Structures are given as structure tokens and as C-alpha cells.
Farnesyl pyrophosphate synthetase (Zea mays), 355 residues
Amino acid sequence: MATVEVVVANGLGSADTKTVFKETYSKLKEEMLDDPAFEFTDESLQWIDRMLDYNVLGGKCNRGLSVIDSYRILKGVDVLSKEETFLACTLGWCIEWLQAYFLVLDDIMDNSQTRRGQPCWFRVPQVGLIAVNDGIILRNHISRILQRHFKGKPYYVDVIDLFNEVEFKTASGQMLDLITTHEGEKDLTKYNLTVRRHIVQYKTAYYSFYLPVACALLLAGENLDNFGDVKNILVEMGTYFQVQDDYLDCFGDPKFIGKIGTDIEDYKCSWLVVQALERADEKQKSILFESYGKSDPACVAKVKDLYKELKLEEVFQAYERESYNKLIADIEAQPSKAVQSVLKSFLHKIYKRDK
């Protein structure tokens, strides 16, 4: 960890953030491999080492890096101290660990093929359903990281409660998603904007958007009860983000976005299918009812053709503009300029993204 000591000796500026963040991962992983609570064999050490790198790394780390950026903005400084930097990086990695945990299990439940441009972990030879236990291990690592580095901090219990609350919301959103798309009970009449909104809010928005900012607020000594409006804005932002995701799943380039979209085959309650159901005439609806949720490439093509016929690409572009304008208005209504800056930094990272 000599690199980290040199980089953060006089504090951390934004230019160094990614470098120090990556080095912090190495330290946290080393601690997991040296955890005295379990007597690791050489084989199990190699497994955990490989499993962590395969699943925790490989993403853009936007959630984790956002903790550091948000904390710096809230503090009103360009440079964080060495301890502040390490704690912010550590909470950021806890979110990345949580993301890895969710994705490992989500890919199994969705029977997905690829993730981040490589085979899903459970599809790696000799892994299979061992991945279920790996997911559990990933979640338990979070508790151990928090205990090791935050026990004794005045906000320790609040951080534990925050992660537990967000995990519960996310798992509940996943449950709603799964039972809505349950195999053998396929019924497009159950799909509407209200159901989809609930799925998105709970499955994605809380852990992807609210959690990083909430972590930064706790680090800054704030009481989360005083930031209900901020939570609502971030959840709205997460909803907008998921609409983008649904759009890219269908219209994005798999080589560019890092995965092959399967929302149509998986019978997902996607923003696109909900919009199609609202706009389709009876003949077009019959195409949806006959083709949606089938893995046959011809059926998938029929659904995509229908989306184009209904001009859903234009509908999405209009939605994107309207969402952005509303979010900006809500953000600028916040009394704290620092909080406004945090929220705008989040929005500008995702607006008109293409992957």
C-alpha cells in the first residue's frame, strides 16, 4: 500500500481519486484474505481472491467513486485528509461489494449470459451454483469491512442501518420484479407504469443513487432524517436511469454496453413494453402477447420492430428531456448549494448516457 501512502500523504484531490480508490480495494481485499475469523486453505484463498476480482472489479465504479466526490463537495474542499479519503473510499467499496453481491445472484435468477463483457460468474467453468454462496460471502464482507473501519465512529450504527435498509428495499424490488415476470404465469395485463415504477425504485434507485450520497452525508456528520427531499430526488434520478437502461437493453450495442440485452426474452416489466402496451392497437397488442417473453430470435425481432413502429425511440427522447428539466428544477429548489452541486454532479454523469 505504499502507493496510497504517497498519494494521500498531503490529502487527495479529484485527479487522484481513481488511483487511490483502486489501491484501497487492494487493502480491503488483503484484509478479507487475512480475516482471522476463518482458517483459509490455500484453495479457498485462491477462490476468494479470484472471485472478488472477477465480481467486484470490472465495472465503472460510479457508485463507489460518487461517495468520494459527494463527500468532497459537501465538505466544500478540493482536498480531503488522508483519513477522510480512506473512509470515503472504503464506504465506496462497500457499495461496490453490495453491487457485486446483487449482480452475482441477479444473473443466476435471470439466467443471464454475460456481465461487464465477460461470462456471468455462475457460467464460469467449475463455479456454477457455488456462485450463490459467493454472493452470501460478498454480503458478509461488507459487514466485516464496516466493523473493522467504522466501529467507534459516531455514525457507525447509522451506516449499518443504512446498508441494511437499502439491501432490504433492493431485495424487495427484485422480488416484485421476479414474481411479476414469473415463468408459467406470464400475463402482460399485469404490466403498467405503477408496477414498473415500484420495481425500479426499490430494485435500482435506492442502492445506485441514494446510498452513495447518504454515505457521504453521514461522513459529513449529517442526520439523514433531514434530507428526505434529497432522497426523493435521487430516487427519481434512479428511475430515470433505469428507463435509460431499459432503452439501451433493446437499442444499445452489446459490444459497447458490455452485455447482451435480454429484457424481451426474460419477460421483463420494461419501460419499453409498458409504453408499447399503452400505445398499441389491438393488432399490435396481439403481437406483443404472442411474442414477448420468448427466446426465439424471430419473436424478439417482432417485438423490436413493433417498438420502432410505435416510435418508442422518439418517446424515450421526449421522456429524457422532460425528466432532466424536472430534476434540475427540483435540485435548484434545495436550500444547500453544496447539496445542489452533489445532485447536479450525479445527474450530469447519466444524462444522455449511451452505455
Observations:
- The radius of gyration is 21 Å.
- The first strand starts at residue 114 and ends at 115.
- The domain at 16-152 is CATH 1.10.600.10 (Farnesyl Diphosphate Synthase).
